[in-house]
Design a protein that fits this description.
- The complex is a heterodimer of chains A (273) and B (659).
- Chain A is built from 3 helices and 13 strands; from the N terminus they run H-H-E-E-E-E-E-E-E-E-E-E-E-E-H-E.
- By secondary structure, chain A is mainly beta.
- In chain A, strand 2 (80-90) and strand 3 form a beta hairpin.
- The model of chain A is unreliable at 1-36 (pLDDT under 50).
- A 7-stranded mixed β-sheet of chain B has the order 10-9-12-17-14-15-20, with no helix packed on it. In chain B, strands 11-19-18-13-16 form a 5-stranded mixed β-sheet, with no helix packed on it. Chain B has a 5-stranded mixed β-sheet with strand order 22-21-24-28-26.
- In chain B, helix 3 (223-233) packs across helix 4.
- The radius of gyration of chain B is 24 Å and the shape is globular.
- Classes of the chains: A mainly beta (273), B alpha+beta (659).
- At the A-B interface, helix 2, strand 4 and strand 9 of A face helix 2, helix 4, strand 21, strand 29 and helix 8 of B.
Chain lengths: 273, 659
């Protein structure tokens, strides 16, 4: 994985930089020995010539919403409600993609955070989209609310062996650089009962104490969720999630009087349509 | 849904079974009625068999068809359909070769164009009925008069070429009776039109596939499957197999995009419970005209206890070949003759290729009879051969592959069990062995071979030749056609992001039975069995070869050719009028695709030389390299596409120009 991520980012940048990389229109013309005088394709199609509707509508756009996790969690630290959702609108290759992730602590005077992203998503390989755009974060709780904005460059796709990966690189308005990577894998116990291991990693290049971020690998979250697809679109789940804060981030968490290692029980719903 | 639709539904429920049946019969076309009076699905008169249609040529046969929305009853459930003259399927259109057809099609839909395409008919381009290619389409309230000469005979069908109307019910059978007597005899005949119905709006079906392509696959490999395979095959072989599929991000259970998770499968518009019944007197020869009018379903057809003699494929007579089962790809037709001699019922069973469901009916001497349903078979798996892996080096390592060896080994690697009943299979297996293909001219003229000259007899009664036993005719009919048998390595072009797989060593698979039929313990039709009755008067070598790669990205449900959808490559594929084109398909996907060229016959290079069959639709198997020779004799613009409706709409479509 350590090698894959930078390679993919580089590959994606290279592809974005040369969007007009030519592909052969007719495969035959690239075959050795194909020196036929007649071109494989010629002229314009009749629907253009005559102003008709095209024979097939292969440029339809679709709208997809996935509430990946809407879950309640309970552990050593306060109970919390988490939302992790995303969606897109667009065609096969070009999409507007949005993401939203937030958490509200259910104990005390109300404390939480939300991050939303608006991204342009472009298919760069059979299993990969490159995504670029902006992210806005807001936290609330004791003291004044805080917010900050980021530029985002990320990938979204399926790696060999069916690992769904979502690495993202962020640069805040202050110039702070951070990264997150989420990986999931679906294990089918039956056609409808699915066990999903999930790994979240957070890294930062600089300390940002007001947001509780220390430099380095600052948090690891490993989850195991068991969902039952009542329909493809709707699946309740239960599971566990182990959260570990590391390095300077852990120091900040300790200073706030909370546990840096927390095994949490989770229950929620996954819905996509 | 309108209030009138609701009241009709309520009426259906209130009227009870008898009333519902009456309603059903009224809504179904005459040939499709299940237990119904004297005609009972009968499309022809007993005794007409073997005779050419009488009367002078040149008369005009007229039909009026109205396309409209209606709520029909299917399996006791109301279904919002688009109908032809009020029924699903539409009425049987029957013509005589040499006459002229005049078909007036009226669009009674609101805010939606329609069209009818005459599938497999050779006609002027502007009468072909593809909106955006042949004409503008039929606007609401308009009537379009199709008028064309009938230059051929046989079993065909028609369907809408607009949006998803075909999925919603706009299709029906079309028969052209020949002027000359047919070279086989029969006492009665039935249309057996197979279709797939979904109660879900096809636009929603399509959007689900775009968002999650395996939405309808409820047969994926599970963790318990892994343990079961490991117990049977050992952990190392099991892991090797799973690892290879997972590494390529492909799913061996991906047989059909649409399955019984949404489809109900129909015979002449009737679900299995309604039991479409064709009556016969024991001892009669019954001609069954099979038409696969599905939007996305391949069927494997058999009638347990009754061998079927295939006499026609895609409307063209073929040398009779007797089989116990045949696969009918989307949009193909096969005419078979059966001779039920016993006074009992036979189940007509059309199992879907993915084994998730079936359509079924009954052949019986009397109404109300049924025969046992055959046991359902295990869902098949794609093999590494379907991924286009190099066959020679792959065979050894595949022999011990779990799941495949046990469930679906495709006749290579693992040793076939010797059994007389599996002769066809064994021959296919031998043909699969990696061996150098002997050099051979592109078109072998078999017409000079001894014993062949008198084969195509006009008065010949059904003289069945068992599938896989053409060896008696001293020709390698069930081995791969030699001129294209060797795998051809794939070129350097991987077709971009819209294509997720490249068949490294695509090869000819016309002699193979196909996924899920490899081990069927009986005779199964293969494309190399198809030999036309008459030799072609002249088979000249093709002037030019055009290679087209069938490409797709299943994960995102993108389909096209050479990595491009139609809108990305709208320029017509140019045929020169009068030339003979060899169209070579290379299937870079692990799915079967029924390819259909409008306006001209496709002659698959199946090794039959001058007797090669003429088809309008041909299934291209996963990782197959397959050549069709085409006489470019029909000027104009023509559609060429995959006949899986959702693949076509996603972009697996091209325009061909002949000028």
């Amino acid at each position: 994985m350590r090698h894959l991520f930078p390679a993919l980012v580089l590959a994606s940048l290279a592809t974005v930089a040369s969007p007009a990389r030519a592909q052969h229109a007719g495969h035959g013309d690239s075959a050795p020995g194909a020196d036929a005088p007649i071109p494989p394709t010629a002229g314009e199609p009749p629907h253009i010539t005559y102003g008709w509707a095209p024979p097939v509508e292969d440029r339809m756009r679709f709208n997809y919403v996935l509430i990946d996790r809407l879950e309640f969690s309970s552990g050593d630290n306060p109970d919390a409600l988490t939302l992790d959702a995303e969606g897109w609108y667009g065609g096969d290759k070009h999409k507007f993609w949005w993401k939203a992730e937030g958490e509200e602590r259910l104990e005390g005077a109300g404390e939480g955070d939300i991050g939303v992203q608006a991204l342009y998503s472009r298919m760069i390989a059979p299993f990969w989209n490159v995504q670029a755009g902006a992210r806005y974060d807001r936290t609330w709780g004791p003291g004044a609310d805080l917010d900050r904005a980021f530029l985002v460059l990320g990938l979204e796709g399926v790696a060999p062996y069916w690992f769904e990966l979502e690495p993202s690189l962020y640069v805040s308005e202050e110039g702070d650089v951070s990264a997150e990577i989420t990986g999931t894998y679906d294990v089918l116990l039956t056609q409808r009962l699915i066990l999903q291991p999930r790994l979240d990693l957070g890294l930062a290049a600089q300390d940002v104490p007001e947001f509780g971020v220390g430099a380095g690998l600052n948090n690891v979250e490993f989850g195991l969720r068991l969902r039952y697809e009542i329909r493809r679109e709707f699946a309740p789940y239960i599971g566990v999630s182990w959260v570990r804060q590391l390095g300077e981030t852990a120091d900040l968490v300790r200073a706030a009087g909370e546990d840096v290692s927390d095994l949490r029980f989770v229950a929620g719903i996954r819905a996509g349509w | 849904m309108s209030s009138s639709a609701f009241s009709r539904r309520r009426f259906l429920r209130a009227s009870g079974a008898l009333g519902a049946l009456a309603m059903l019969q009224r809504l179904a076309p005459a040939y499709a009625q299940a237990p119904g009076g004297a005609h009972a699905g009968h499309v022809g008169m007993a005794g007409m068999a073997g005779k050419g249609a009488e009367g002078a040529a040149g008369k005009t046969s007229t039909y009026d068809l109205a396309i409209d929305r209606a709520v029909i009853d299917l399996a006791g459930t109301s279904a919002a359909a688009v109908t032809v003259n009020g029924t699903v399927p539409g009425p049987l259109l029957r013509f005589r070769e040499g006459d002229e057809a005049l078909i007036r099609v009226s669009n009674r839909l609101h805010g939606e164009d329609t069209s009818i395409h005459w599938h497999g008919l050779i006609l002027p381009a502007e009468m072909d009925g593809v909106p955006g290619v042949s004409f503008a389409g039929i606007k609401p309230g308009e009537t379009f008069a199709y008028r064309f000469p009938l230059k051929q005979s046989g079993t065909y069908w028609y369907h809408s070429h607009s949006g998803f109307q075909e999925q919603l019910g706009v299709f029906g059978p079309l028969i052209i009776d020949p002027r000359e007597p047919e070279p086989y005899a029969f006492d009665r005949e039935y249309v057996v039109l197979l279709s797939d119905w979904t109660f879900t709006d096809p636009h929603l079906v399509y959007s689900r596939l775009k968002k999650q392509a395996n939405y309808y696959n409820r047969q994926r490999a599970t963790l318990p499957d892994l343990f079961r395979d490991a117990k049977r095959e050992g952990w190392s072989a099991t892991f090797a197999n799973r690892r290879e599929w997972a590494r390529m991000r492909m799913d061996p259970t991906d047989i059909s995009d649409l399955t019984s998770a949404t489809y109900t499968y129909l015979v002449n518009g009737l679900p299995p419970a309604a039991n479409w019944t064709g009556l016969f007197h024991p001892g009669e020869r019954v001609r069954l005209r099979f038409i696969n009018a599905s939007a996305a379903t391949y069927f494997d057809v058999r009638i347990p206890g009754l061998p079927m003699t295939v006499v026609q494929a895609d409307g063209n007579d073929v040398q009779p070949v007797t089989v116990d089962e045949f696969r009918i790809a989307v949009a193909e037709t096969y005419d078979v003759i059966v001779e039920p001699s016993e006074d009992r019922a036979y189940t007509l069973f059309a199992e879907t290729m993915d084994r998730s469901g079936y359509a079924a009916g009954t052949l019986a001497p009397r109404l109300g009879m049924t025969a046992p349903m055959p046991a359902r078979r295990a869902r098949p798996l794609r093999t590494m051969a379907d991924m286009g892996m190099d066959h020679g080096s792959g065979a050894g390592s595949m022999a011990g592959m779990p799941g495949m060896a046990a469930e679906t080994h495709s006749g290579h690697g693992s040793a076939p069990t010797p059994s007389p009943a599996r002769k066809g299979h064994d021959m296919a297996a031998m043909a699969d062995l990696p061996k150098p293909a002997p050099a051979s001219p592109p078109a072998v003229d078999h017409s000079t071979m001894p014993g062949m000259a008198d084969m195509p007899g006009m008065k010949m009664p059904v003289a069945p030749v068992a599938s896989g036993e053409h060896a008696g005719m001293a020709m390698p009919a069930t081995s791969a056609p030699t001129e294209v048998a060797a795998p051809v390595p794939h070129g350097p072009d991987n077709h971009g992001a819209s294509n997720s797989m490249v068949a490294m060593a695509p090869r000819n698979r016309l002699h193979e039975r196909g996924t899920g039929l490899e081990d069927a313990p009986h005779r199964v039709l293969v494309y190399t069995d198809l030999r036309s009755v008459r030799p072609r008067p002249e088979v000249r070598p093709p002037d030019r070869e055009i290679e087209l790669h069938i490409t797709g990205n299943m994960e995102r449900y993108i389909w096209g050719f050479d990595g491009k959808t139609f809108s990305e490559a709208p320029a017509p594929i140019a045929f020169k009028l009068g030339e003979r084109v060899r169209l070579t398909f290379v299937n870079d996907t692990m799915m079967d695709h029924p390819m259909h060229l409008h306006g001209m016959w496709s002659e698959p290079e199946n090794g039959a030389g001058a007797y090669r069959p003429k088809k309008h639709t041909i299934n291209v198997k996963p990782a197959e390299r397959l050549s069709l020779d085409i006489e470019a004799d029909a000027p104009g613009f023509w559609a060429m596409h995959c006949h899986i409706l959702y693949h076509m709409e996603a972009g697996m479509f091209r325009v061909v120009s002949v000028a």
